[in-house]
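note to self: dont lose this again. the chain is below, predicted strucutre after it. 131 aa total, dont forget to put it in the shared folder this time
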Amino acid sequence: KKEEAAKKKAKSATRIAPEPKDPREHLNIVFIGHVDAGKSTISGNILYLMGEVDERTIERYTKLADDKGRGSWWLAFIMDINEEERAKGKTVEVGKAHFETKNKRYTILDAPGHASFVPSMIGGACQADIG
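---
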């Protein structure tokens, strides 16, 4: 019994302690609006301006948008990641991305605007702290 207790104690001593909870306030921001209102574009622009997207990725998205004849959509491609969304220019699923500042942490929720995807939009809206 003593050996088992010693083994258990040794095992528990080697466990990695969970990281402390980040004390900064966290906010979920949802962008909701009509199809083609620019929700994905503004979401992508925020991430770009906050330095969450590297230049190499921006170059790739710019080229991809140009190749599809949609040169102005490169910022939307940051949020609209599946091929269907990029081909049609319509968000299908709620896009989710994170950024942080010195004092706060944020999650951007990019909701679909097309009537066919209202259930997904409602799902995104339900998660919002700010919208």
